[in-house]
Hints:
Shape: elongated
Strand content: 25-35%
Helix content: 25-40%
CATH class of the largest domain: Alpha Beta
Mean pLDDT: 91
Structural class: alpha+beta
Radius of gyration: 32 Å
Number of domains: 5
CATH superfamily of the largest domain: P-loop containing nucleotide triphosphate hydrolases
Distance between the termini: 79 Å
CATH topology of the largest domain: Rossmann fold
Largest sheet: 7 strands, mixed
Amino acid sequence: MPMSAEIAALRTLALVGPATAGKTSLVEALLWKAGMIGAPGTVERGSTVSDWDPLERRAQRSLNSSLLHFRHGGIQAHLIDTPGAPDFLGQSLPALEAVETAAVVISATTGIEPMAVRMMNWAAQRERDRLIIVNKIDAQGVNLEALVAQIQATFGRECLPLNLPADGGARVVDCFYTRQAEGRTDFSSVEQAHRALVEQVVEVDAAFVERYLNDGDIDPQELHAPLEQALREGHLIPICFVSARTGAGVPELLDVIARLLPDPSEGNPPAFLKGEGAEAKPLRAEPDATRHVLAHVFKVTQDPYVGKMGVLRVHQGTLTTGCQLYVGDARRPFKVGHLLRLQGKEYIEVPRAYPGDLCAIAKIEELYFDAVLHDSPDDDHIHLKPLDFPVPVHGLAIEPKRRGDEQRLYDILHKLVSEDPCLRLEHVAATNESVVYGLGELHLRTLLDRLTEVHRCEVTTRPPRIAYRETITAPAEGHHRHKKQTGGAGQFGEVFLRVEPLPRGSGFEFVDHVKGGAIPYNFMPAVEKGVRQALEAGVVAGYPVVDLRVVVYDGKHHTVDSKEIAFITAGRKAVVAAVQAARPSVLEPIVNVEIAAPEQNIGDITGDLASRRAQVSGTTSASGGLAVVALAPLSELSSYQSRLNALTGGQGRYTIEFSHYEPVPPTVQSQLASQYRVKDEA
Length: 682
């Protein structure tokens, strides 16, 4: 088959949407009807092709995106099954960049859920063709006509049924190629749906509009080009009906994929950019197998048998076994040893990959998520427009159970973070903690399961400590004489100093104003060392003291007994005395918080924020609702996602960003100081 024909015979789509929609079961039905498997597996039995990970089978839900493929009607289809939980958007969002069509699956029993709305919006932003698949059409008590009306009210009148259910969801009738059908459909009619589809498609081409007005109808076989244009422009979003459980509508869905969904030359091109920052210019990738290679890595996995593996979409050129590729701006190429096509956990070696193909390359350590691969050293500074991922703010401090496993844990965490763009690992110097951040409790619980069950690394976790600070609000003086005599040479050092408050964010200043050699210059570093030790350990509540100036202005020494240790001790105790007299204050981190939620929940959210000492500054528009903008103490937002889920029915998300430090209320300072005294005494 010529290369152009190979490309024209490719289809790529990602099944996205909420966890309750039955995407994995639909994948099984598609593979079965396409003849790829002997019988469909079930999520309950853990026998599906896509949910092959032991953790997925135990949880009975998808935790990773999974690649599959099938042949039908002369086409080769690449399919990505994605997780439906919002915690795993790091797996589902990248799939949109690798396909022409985002197939949003909606359950007929639960209707339109927030995840379906989010995925429809994201797919529109990335200019993917969109297809809505209504699953579970044979369930008891479903009202499919009302659901279609709800879909059109939510996503627009351009959402039109491509087929209609009949006999209570036992079968499905095509409405695009078929003008009339025998028997009744469950709602509407084939004639009405056909007319609505044709009128919607011809609107994108004036010549077809004129023909339609003159002739009253057009042979759908002639409408392929305007249909693809309507899909590209979002002027048509087809609705298909299926039951993955019974297989009703699945053969018709296979025909839709083969006959109506775009090939790589018919979809919108990916958003490649060449250059950096404001100078970056759009770069169009041509789905031409004869041009130089452009591909991008949309998934990275760490396979225990084949090592690091990058899963990629070829956008331009042809990949072959043995070819040389560059990763991003790297100047050294790597050699492709094997090209793999994935079918769940199975790896199938292929000799080449054309534009539109999804394949994998293993054992190349240079690969990373979102990396652009090319075959020319001149093609540097090419990258994809970044995806708008949610910011991971749900944190856990983590450390190994066994001493000595710190480096091993760190290496494993780095591998897991490299697989998921919505995981973040950070060492917080202020609290000396390693903190891993994710999108929610389920996200982090899955990470811990992988650590313990897959990598056999036992860990302990706790909520991250709040990085409080201490400061002073008035000038004060301190003095300490350190004198120790134990027979023979003793220890002696005396320090007089004063502390002065500095503006917030100034840090620490040490000033030597000693005159006449009262403290010899060679002992002044020891005084400063003692001062720094005391300020780092904290005075009031055990947190670092900041934003002050320490001025050493006098002291005494002994020609025999003065030593560094004496002046370290004198400096440390003198500054503690000064800080205690300088009206000390504990500071807490204040963060900018933005909470996106449905409009009807905004009142509850602002009230809850007020109870958390937050200052609400206003609201802005957000996708699917409004966003509350506020300043809040970080300590009041511990496990806030759980509270937000309760207020919004799981539809709210929030992001935080450090703003500044402010003094805590007196009651909080007293509590922190009391806890510090108890700990110090213990």
